[in-house]
């Protein structure tokens, strides 16, 4: 007689999927932080002081580290309140991770091209930060508000965090527009960003504190 088929409990499967996403995410963030140190490339030249040699590399390192760490803190908060992941939320998180992996390289390009007449470094930096926070917001918005994967949180708080992420994305977009010469669009875009931040703060008022 054939043995009865065993079934893995649905709750166990959901936890497996979430755990794998957490491990994948932490791995990418850890590699990106490591690449920040790899980007330390001091140029030793005669007549240069210790400060001249290390100022830019250390600037690249700490700027990359702090930027990636800020995204990780927000991403950790999101995943901590999610009870499950599905296909779209997984792919949206992978989109975010693909942008996180680019941050160390883009930050170095930004700092080494500050005097570039085309301001390509500023544009690249602003665009990648804007895209990173936009993807963070997209992943959170879908997961919490569309798919209902953060059931312990109120929709008000979910919207508050979404507005917070989009605020950063829009402000850096305004910086890119200003650098490219689209000054007519800077004020309304920046105003929209400030509006998102105010909405985020307003929605967060009266909500019970949660561990983030």
Total beta strands: 0
Mean of residue pLDDT values:
87
pLDDT below 50 for ≥5 consecutive residues: which ranges? none
The gross shape turns out to be globular
User: What is the H-and-E element order?
Assistant: HHHHHHH
Describe the overall structure.
Helices cover 75% and strands 0% of the residues. It contains 7 helices and no strands. α2 runs parallel beside α5 and α3 (87-100) runs antiparallel to α5 (120-146). The model has no long low-confidence stretch (mean pLDDT 87).
Secondary structure elements and pairings:
Blueprint: H1 10-38, H2 50-80, H3 87-100, H4 103-112, H5 120-146, H6 155-180, H7 183-204
Helix pairs in contact: 1-2, 1-3, 2-4, 2-5, 3-5, 4-5, 5-6, 6-7
Tell me briefly what this model is:
The protein is mainly α and 212 residues long. 75% of the residues lie in helices and 0% in strands.
Task: Provide key terms for this protein.
212 residues, 7 helices, mainly alpha
């Amino acid at each position: 007689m054939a043995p009865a088929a065993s079934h893995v409990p649905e709750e166990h499967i959901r936890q497996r999927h979430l755990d794998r996403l957490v491990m994948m995410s932490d791995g990418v963030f850890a590699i990106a932080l490591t690449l920040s140190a790899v980007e330390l490339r001091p140029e030793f030249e005669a007549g240069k002081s210790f400060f001249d040699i290390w100022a830019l590399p250390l600037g690249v390192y700490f700027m990359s580290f702090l930027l990636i760490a800020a995204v990780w803190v927000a991403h950790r908060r999101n995943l901590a309140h999610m009870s499950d992941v599905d296909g779209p939320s997984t792919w949206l998180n992978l989109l975010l991770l693909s942008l996180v992996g680019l941050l160390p390289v883009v930050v170095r390009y930004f700092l080494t091209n500050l005097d570039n007449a085309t301001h390509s470094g500023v544009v690249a930096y602003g665009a990648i930060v804007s895209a990173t926070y936009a993807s963070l917001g997209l992943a959170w918005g879908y997961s919490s508000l569309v798919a209902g994967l953060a059931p312990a949180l109120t929709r008000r708080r979910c919207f508050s965090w979404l507005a917070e992420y989009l605020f950063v994305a829009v402000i850096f977009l305004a910086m890119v527009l200003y650098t490219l010469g689209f000054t007519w669009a800077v004020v309304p875009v920046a105003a929209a960003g400030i509006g998102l931040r105010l909405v985020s703060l307003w929605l967060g008022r009266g909500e019970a504190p949660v561990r983030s």
